[in-house]
Design a protein that fits this description.
about 90 residues, 3-stranded antiparallel β-sheet
Length: about 90
């Protein structure tokens, strides 16, 4: 996996709202990332498909870890609030 943070993307979508997969060739699939105002297509070959899956798994893990951390912080604030008698 490349970790060259100096490379800038050619295209950008602020948030991906939907994704679609299309066949391009036997060993090439097109992943279409659909945003609010733009659509970007990426061709995935067998050379990078394992890395693509690993990146998707990493994104999933990071989002869930961040959400779990936020939920833990909110639970702690609620417990402190109840303990202090502030039941707002």
């Amino acid at each position: 996996m490349s970790d060259d943070s100096s490379s800038k993307p050619d295209e950008s979508i602020p948030y991906v709202r939907e994704m679609e997969v299309y066949d391009s060739a036997e060993d090439v699939k097109i992943v279409r990332f659909i945003g609010d105002s733009r659509t970007v297509e990426v061709r995935i070959t067998d050379d990078v498909m394992v890395e693509f899956a690993e990146v998707a798994e990493d994104v999933f893990d990071r989002i869930h870890a961040d959400m779990a951390e936020m939920n833990d912080l909110l639970d702690e604030v609620r417990r402190d609030s109840v303990r202090d008698g502030d039941r707002s």
